[in-house]
């Protein structure tokens, strides 16, 4: 980074010191406020009386104040190190004087006059920094569109409260601060990018919350970071209506969640739900079954690249169970279940027919057809109770008629006067008793009727569907292959027999739970962010959209990295059209900020081998580095020895994050064992970790997705490992797009045909 003295350095340094003094003053006041609130809450808890409504109100109010104070305190501590990162001078149309807007991660106003000292990066006016250029500019805010002129855009490099450098800029995409940040080294956690958000990234972050957004982003385009910044932005701008708990991010695995765990707190946001689709499914189903490792199937496909019949059938089974066709088949099966659901008998009270089977069945199948089964039953129960009240006189008349008939029969058959009189009195008393207790009898009759209805269980229904309905389904009706239907049935039954399910079974199970019980009200989520969206099926997205009512979506992914395409996304249009009824927005991020030009060019050469010409390669930022090294070494032992030597060189350069990325777990284990002979600070990633420690790691290519490292070593880039195959192309592309600075490809006898142009 250039260290030449800026003409305004003294002025800006004074402003920085002034701001830091005010931060320090506010921090002191906030600490005092926190101590007061802590003491108040302790006192309330100590003398809390649950019968006293004022005690309850005091606890709620002070707890909320403490929560906001804790967040402010955390932001102020962070601001002591870096109070702001940019300045925009904006002269609003019709005003004489320009405003000097200093932009940081929090908002800070002077208490005496509410003059803004720091503008929050999420505020509408901050959009001038991210997308505006010198000259005429405007921004949208709640008051409308504000027009004016940008007179100055300036960036600051501040570390530990010290102003180190200043840059005057126009277009953020080519500024020095961005280049400096891109040249930095990787860490064991993802970092925020508020100071270097680019215009195309900013458009995604600030996009309309309520319009579904699908983003196709190249490797290194900042998809994950943008997703997290979007959550922070939406929470800030919708804080009156939504809490952080109303936002949820779904990531590929727990390891990845740990990797991104620092970003939201750094942006002043806590309590956002972070989960995986598997964990989300178990929470919904409220029952945990053993799940097969999704990566085991991927590895079977990797090893079975000769495409034998079994591998092909297994892949097509995954495709089927992940498809909307499968959902349609499930709908048809369940409709056949519902047609037989209502018992073919009339509803009676004391053997008096009140409602016919046809009437109740019509309510169930037609009147309430758009509701989950249990909702339908509850409505039928209410209907029966309400209609019984209306038909009470008819029932009483029926009871009188029945009693009169009994009396006539008694008079005809009983000759003994005393017995005859006793029986007549008994009949009349029984009638009067029933009439006086008619409401009680009615309620019991309704309860007994509802209790007698079949109990539906999602797991049992799914098993019947798989084992009995699916293999007998009309394949032509669904445009399916009857052999695949039978194989899917047999394969899934085998899983059931072993008391396991696979990832592809979770969406159907959740869907059945939803159409039986209805579960939307149990989920307080209003906006869902899905990362690595290319690994989600349309069925999964459909289920999420339908069970979380009135929710909005941001989906980010890269089809070029779709290594699970057999159960994932192949075309974003399918998701937009089917899940969001064609109303979703689609944006593309082609710019890659992670790797050097040399590394990205090499990775794109591999990607061009794909037969899918619709894939969109990444465009690297103009940051150059060393050429990609393609090294021939005969044995794996010697390859690891060479890697060790290069790791030592990288450490001298200040690199801390390095990865040896192998295609398979077996190769990873072998390489890891060899590396342990040289160093103790190497770790093996298996996918079962809950924390990502960083440093020097050995990791399979399919688990490296989303991670980044200073340097990457691929020890098995040979023709026996990476063949000219769609899956291998994507696996190698993933591995090659992980490094920031250096990439080394090793091979033995012959290099992979995918790397022939490198």
Explained architecture:
There is one protein chain. With 758 residues, this protein is an alpha/beta fold. It is 47% helix and 16% strand. It contains 27 helices and 25 strands. Strands 1, 2, 3, 4, 5, 6 and 7 form a 7-stranded mixed sheet that branches. Strands 10-9-15-16-8-17 form a 6-stranded parallel sheet. Strand 6 (144-159) and strand 7 form a beta hairpin. Helix 15 packs antiparallel against helix 16 (417-436), helix 18 packs across helix 21 and helix 24 (597-607) packs antiparallel against helix 27 (726-736). The longest helix has 38 residues, at 9-46.
Quick summary:
It is built from 27 helices and 25 strands. By secondary structure, the protein is an alpha/beta fold.
Helix and strand arrangement:
Blueprint: H1 9-46, H2 53-79, E1 86-92, E2 99-104, E3 108-109, E4 116-120, H3 127-131, E5 135-141, E6 144-159, E7 162-168, H4 176-182, H5 199-205, E8 213-217, H6 223-237, E9 247-250, H7 254-259, H8 263-266, E10 273-275, H9 277-285, E11 290-291, H10 294-303, H11 309-321, H12 324-339, E12 347-349, E13 352-355, H13 357-367, H14 373-390, H15 392-413, H16 417-436, H17 438-451, H18 458-469, H19 475-478, H20 482-497, E14 500-501, H21 503-517, E15 527-530, H22 538-547, E16 552-557, H23 572-579, E17 585-589, E18 591-592, H24 597-607, E19 619-620, E20 629-632, H25 636-652, E21 658-662, H26 665-675, E22 682-684, E23 696-700, E24 709-714, H27 726-736, E25 739-747
Parallel strand pairs: 2-4, 8-16, 8-17, 9-10, 9-15, 11-14, 15-16, 18-19, 20-25, 21-23, 21-24, 22-23, 24-25
Antiparallel strand pairs: 1-2, 1-6, 3-4, 5-6, 6-7, 12-13
Helix pairs in contact: 1-2, 5-6, 9-21, 11-20, 14-17, 15-16, 18-20, 18-21, 21-22, 22-23, 24-27
């Amino acid at each position: 980074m250039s260290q030449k003295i800026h003409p305004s350095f003294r002025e800006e340094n004074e402003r920085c010191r002034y701001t830091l003094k005010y931060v320090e003053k506010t921090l002191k006041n906030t600490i005092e406020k926190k101590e007061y609130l802590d003491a108040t809450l302790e006192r309330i808890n100590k003398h809390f009386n649950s019968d006293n409504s004022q005690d309850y109100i005091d606890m709620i109010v002070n707890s909320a104040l403490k929560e906001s104070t804790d967040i402010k305190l955390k932001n102020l501590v962070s601001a002591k190190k870096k109070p702001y990162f940019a300045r925009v001078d904006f002269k609003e149309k019709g005003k004489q004087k320009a405003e000097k807007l200093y932009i940081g991660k929090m908002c800070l106003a002077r208490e005496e006059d509410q003059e803004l000292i720091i503008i929050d990066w999420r505020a509408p006016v901050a959009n001038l920094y991210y997308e505006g250029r010198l000259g005429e500019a405007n921004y949208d805010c709640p008051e409308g569109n504000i027009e004016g002129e940008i007179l100055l855009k300036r960036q600051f490099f501040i570390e530990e409260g010290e102003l180190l450098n200043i840059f005057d800029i126009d277009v953020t995409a080519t500024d020095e601060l961005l280049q400096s940040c891109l040249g930095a080294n990787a860490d064991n956690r993802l970092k925020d990018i508020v100071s270097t958000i680019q215009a195309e990234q900013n458009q995604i972050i600030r996009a309309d919350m309520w319009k579904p957004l699908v983003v196709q982003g190249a490797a290194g385009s900042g998809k994950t970071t943008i997703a997290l910044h979007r959550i922070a932005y939406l929470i800030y701008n919708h804080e009156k209506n939504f809490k952080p708990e109303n936002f949820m991010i779904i990531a590929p695995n727990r390891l990845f969640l740990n990797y991104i765990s620092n970003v939201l707190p750094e942006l002043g946001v806590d309590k956002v739900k972070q989960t995986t689709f598997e964990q989300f499914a178990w929470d919904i189903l409220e029952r945990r079954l053993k799940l097969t490792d999704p990566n085991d199937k991927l590895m079977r496909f990797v090893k079975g690249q000769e495409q034998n019949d079994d591998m092909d059938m297994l892949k097509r089974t995954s495709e089927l169970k992940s498809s909307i066709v499968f959902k349609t088949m499930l709908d048809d099966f369940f409709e056949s279940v519902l047609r037989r659901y209502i018992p073919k008998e009339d509803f009676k009270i004391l053997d008096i027919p009140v409602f016919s089977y046809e009437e109740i069945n019509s309510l169930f199948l037609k009147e309430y057809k758009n509701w989950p089964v249990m909702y339908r039953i509850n409505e039928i129960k209410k209907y029966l109770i309400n209609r019984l009240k209306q038909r009470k006189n008819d029932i009483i008349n029926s009871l009188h008629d029945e009693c009169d008939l009994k009396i006539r029969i008694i008079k005809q058959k009983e000759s003994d006067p005393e017995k005859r009189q006793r029986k007549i009195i008994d009949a009349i008393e029984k009638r009067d008793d029933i009439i006086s207790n008619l409401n009680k009898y009615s309620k019991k009759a309704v309860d007994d009727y509802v209790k007698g209805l079949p109990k539906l269980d999602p797991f049992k229904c799914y098993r019947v569907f798989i084992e009995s309905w699916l293999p007998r389904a009309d394949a032509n009706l669904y445009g399916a292959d009857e052999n695949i239907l039978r194989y899917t049935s047999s394969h899934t039954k085998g899983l059931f027999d072993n008391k396991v399910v696979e990832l592809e079974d979770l969406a159907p199970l959740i869907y059945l739970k939803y159409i039986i019980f209805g579960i939307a009200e149990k989920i307080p989520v209003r906006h869902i962010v899905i990362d690595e969206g290319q690994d989600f099926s349309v069925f999964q997205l459909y289920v999420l959209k339908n069970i979380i009512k009135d929710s909005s979506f941001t989906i980010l992914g890269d089809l070029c990295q779709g290594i699970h395409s057999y159960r994932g996304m192949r075309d974003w249009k399918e998701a937009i059209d089917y899940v969001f009824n064609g109303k979703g927005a689609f944006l593309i991020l082609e710019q890659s900020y992670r790797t050097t030009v040399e590394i990205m060019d090499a990775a794109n050469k591999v990607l061009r081998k794909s037969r899918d010409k619709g894939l969109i390669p990444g465009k690297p930022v103009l940051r150059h580095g060393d050429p990609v090294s393609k090294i021939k070494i005969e044995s794996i032992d010697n390859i690891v020895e060479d890697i060790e030597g290069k790791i030592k060189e990288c450490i001298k350069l200040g690199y801390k994050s390095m990865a040896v990325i192998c295609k398979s777990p077996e190769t990873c284990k072998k390489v890891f064992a060899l590396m342990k002979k040289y160093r103790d600070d190497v770790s093996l990633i298996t996918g079962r970790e809950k924390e990502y420690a960083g440093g020097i790691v050995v990791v399979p290519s399919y688990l490296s997705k989303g991670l980044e490292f200073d340097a990457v070593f691929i020890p098995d880039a040979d023709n026996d490992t990476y063949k000219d195959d769609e899956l291998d192309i994507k696996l190698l592309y993933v591995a090659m797009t992980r490094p920031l600075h250096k990439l080394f490809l090793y091979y033995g006898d012959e290099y992979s045909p995918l790397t022939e142009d490198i």
